[in-house]
Amino acid sequence: MKIAIFSDIHGNKEALTSILNDIKKESIDEIISLGDNIGIGPNPKECMDIIIDNNVKVVLGNHELYFLKGTDITNDIDKDEKKHHNWIKKQITEKQKEYIEKCSLILEREYNGKKILFEHFLIEDKSNNYPFYDLSIVKDKKIKEIVNELNYDKIFIGHEHKDFILNNKLYDVGSSGCRKDNKTRYTILDTNTFEIETRIIEYDRKSFEEDILKTDYPEKEKLADWFFGIEL
After folding, report:
1. Can you list the domains of the chain with their CATH numbers?
2. pTM
3. pLDDT averaged over consecutive 10-residue blocks of the chain (232 residues)?
4. Which of 113, 81, 103 is nearest to 32 (CA)?
């Protein structure tokens, strides 16, 4: 079977739509999102509608955890960013909330004797409200020893927004939504051959920029610049 994997859509409806349209051409059996479908971008509600309508399996990202458990689960969010997350809460419908509540931190699968793990980022402690390791493990190279100790053949993560591969075992698929051009991406895993393909496709950047301009939400100027390369 073939599994399509993407991560960190972050309210970019146009990128998500392009990914799902491309998936329909690729004989995909299952679609998995590695989380952070909401937050940062202008269309969290619309993205969740698309995900639900297309039966996308979702593992919880930190932005879903902020929505479910509040922003106090980490010390990294200032008062202005909290306003942004409060805005997101007002966008999400009860149906979407119920969908998110049913999602888990990880998905584990086994194909032909090989163990596969899907998660938003490497997990330090599942019992913590914020369970993920700090992103600093990527820069200081601690991620290597953490990955080596995990009993999986392939691990797929997102969160860092930059794609990379570690020891042919860990695959960060990058951010599909936080893009500074008109290209988005997703990954295909063939569970028969264990070949892994990255698909780079175009999305309607103009419509996305128009969505940002017409949507009034907290921290829009800063987020648009940092994550999308758009100066307002």
Report:
1. 2-228 (3.60.21.10)
2. 0.97
3. 98 98 95 98 98 98 98 94 97 98 98 97 97 96 96 98 96 98 98 96 98 97 97 93
4. 103
